[in-house]
Amino acid sequence: MQIRFAYLWLFWLGIVPMGGQELAVSTQRLSLRMLEGGPRPPVARLSITSPTPWTAVLSGEEVLALSPTAGAGTGMITATAVSWQKPGTHQATITISNNQKISRVISVTLVVEPRQAPKFSYVAGPSGCSDAPGLPIANAAVCVVPGENPPGNFSPPALGQSYTDPNFGARVHVIAGPSALHGYSTPSPVSAANKYALVSIDNESTVVELLTGKVIKKVSINFEGAMWDGRNERFLYTFADGAVRRFDVTSGKATTVVNYRAGAQRFQSITAGGTGEMTKDNWLSFHAPQEHQVCALDATTPKTYCARLPEDAKVDFTNISKGVDRISGHRYVLVIQNGPFLLYTVNQSAGRLDLAGRGPENILMDGGDGDGVCEEEEACIAGVHSDTMEDSAGNQFLVTGIEEQAPCGYSLYSIQLNKGAQMGIPAEFGGGLKRTMPLFRCGGKDTWADFHAACAKAAPSCVFSITTQAYNRTRNPNDKTPVKHTPYLGEIIVMRENGAEIRRLAMHRSLQFSNEEANGYWSTPRAAISPDGAYVVATSNFGFPNQRRVIVVETGHLSEGAGSISPLKP
């Protein structure tokens, strides 16, 4: 007899009838399956019935851990796989004995599947980098940055000029500054066809040419949270006074798309939380804080679809899938809140949003049942510092960073939204959770820095930017000691498809100083990506307090043999 659990990666085999036996166990064989390095499979539970006290002896402590190892009468043992096993098949036995000298032997098989390391690529290099143990082989994760300031002598080029990153070979252009910055990692500051970028120069919202930095126009809108039209270079969308407004860069005039203070909704105010993105076909999401509503707007129609949020939801931001999912047929809206993210679908026929689920259980943390479904008292995935991505096949994903406990670390992950209740189970076992790249190791040697994620609205590409310092840790401007680099600190990295290729582009060379506003927050790179994935926009002070510049990094693609550069393509 075989019972197969729905999440596909733990099997119970050979159930023994318990009636009429002096010592009975619920199974004679356990078969477990996991990925190399974790996460561990769900704990196995063994029921024991005995008229007298019993003990459990394990042969194979390197495979399994038992708790408890003794009991009296009816009892339960939990068997937990050890997560640091090498790939292959590992065997163990559990012997249950009572004081009547009756024994039952349970055979255990743990199959550890090898995990595929991400494919790393570079425009050139890597140069000056060495491997970090515990991360993928040949990772070159720890780098020495030539001339890094402080105490080095690297100075950024003049406005409109460029340089080649010495570590990874990407071309970096300075397009604004030194008193300049761009907004958040999303929405992208880059217009539909890469002609313009929206930045702040001397505290004025400004449209500039993407690669030269030539000023096109000062604009009377807030650069934070403004969304470029998915099709037209002329238009930017903003939230103001309870309305969605469209700003024409050419004429300098704004028109109202929908006024939510009037009409059916009667919303006092609306916001996307300063982030999110407009899709390539001009959909966007927002929430109305006072009315506790989350909505999606088709700005072309224009038509709005809403749902009431749970009463205890405290919204950080909303986002929307880059398109309609090829399998489910749904367009998704996500609410990042004080808990697991909420997942809605657009119901166009009914004119509303439908709640489809919430962020899955974080099976990478101990304490849950490991089935991938978020339940009370379990660690669940919140989706902070995340963005949505559409792969070339039309699948919709949430891309984010997740802390891991089994084993301990921090990695970049994607969650395939069309997997429903299975989206929290590893993709290798039929679910939707995929580790795209490990970043930081536990043990006190690595700096766990802050990161941001952003994905292209019209290409299967994302960018990750990692700060050089731990979260909210500033540097004294008089401190001239060299920066201590641990894995991936200070890097700008792009991902193609769902982890098919990881390309390390450049060191952003930016530090956060104690004499800068907001603890140096605006000196973090907060990298964003162009709609087609060809360019990355970031902010850097190049190690000089209060001298922020906006940079554009070419994502590049090395052609076979010649080494010439063209935009990164799927």
Task: Offer a few descriptive terms.
mainly beta; globular; Immunoglobulin-like; 7-stranded mixed beta sheet; 570 residues; 5-stranded mixed beta sheet
**Neighbour order of strands in the largest sheet:** 1-2-4-11-10-6-8
What is the assembly state of the chains in this entry?
single chain
Helix content class: under 10%
Q: Are there runs of 5+ residues with pLDDT below 50, and where?
A: 1-20, 558-570
Gross geometry: globular
CATH superfamily of the largest domain: YVTN repeat-like/Quinoprotein amine dehydrogenase
CATH architecture name of the largest domain: 7 Propeller
What count of structural domains?
2
Mean pLDDT: 91
CATH class of the largest domain: Mainly Beta
Q: How is the CATH topology of the largest domain named?
A: Methylamine Dehydrogenase, Chain H
In short, what is this structure?
Helix content is 0%, strand content 42%.
